Amino acid sequence: MDRMQHTNHAKAWEFAEDRAFARQSQTLIRVRAAAEQAGVPQTSAAQAELLSLMVTLTGAQSVIAVGTCSLVETVALLEGLRDGGQLTAVDSSAQGITMIRDVFHALEDETQTSLRAVNADVNVFLPRLNANDYDLIVVAGDAANYQATLDQAPRLLSERGTIVFTDMLSQGGVLDAADRGEKTVAMRAFLESLEANEEFDSTLTPDGTGMAIAVKR
Question: Which helix (H) or strand (E) holds 86?
């Protein structure tokens, strides 16, 4: 790939991001602004839009959002559910769960979706959930969330259920061979683990800061 192609790819990413940002709902705009004001960076608008669409594409009615202060991802999934089904948000951080509960409280009179926000470690909470009950799982935040959730996903997901991992490129760190940051190293190892997992068909996409989408075989 030559320099012009690299430039065009960068421009395409910016174009898609700008379009998605302009299309955000007022709820997402408020949630993003509140989170960033609190010093909590959020996912790209294009990635959030794709997550919402994934709910429609998969026909999901029961969704788990695993994250660390991942408010935009969580609200995007809620919007994708379109007043139906169930959304369970799992966050081990005190700040994150407080913000998610505040958002859920503000929206509970505006949606028919069943909302549940749980402050727990994924290694403790996910094994307690019923098997084959979930159509879609989305994972974000701390590196520790990724492999722990993948380990539980075959049991939790319904037939042909889908799991999506965001920030797979670790804010671009995975692209830099010299980057040895904790999450970057973890994402490189996790990508190898996911691609070798015989219980899922998966693909890596460059949307946002990188997404891996895996479907249960």
Answer: strand 86-91
Q: Report yes or no on whether pTM surpasses 0.85.
A: yes
Tokens of 42: 């959020």
Two tokens, residue 41: 């960076």
Minimal CA–CA distance to 70: which of 159, 11, 145, 162?
145
Cα-based distances in Å from 191 to 175, 210, 217: 13, 11, 18
**Would you list the DSSP string of 95-160?**
HHHHHHHHHHHHHTTT--SEEEEEES-HHHHGGGSPTT-EEEEEE-SSTHHHHHHHHHHHHHEEEE
Structure tokens that stand for 59 in this block: 């026909």
- 186 burial (CB, 10 Å; 0-12 / 13-18 / 19+) is middle
9-28 pLDDT tens trace: 788 889 999 999 999 999 99
Closest by CA position to 160, among listed 59, 91, 84, 85 = 59
Q: How many residues does the chain have?
A: 217
High-pLDDT (> 90) share of the chain, %: 78
Bridge partner list, 42: none
Q: Which helix (H) or strand (E) holds 203?
A: strand 200-205
CA atoms within 13 A on the CB side of 76: 25
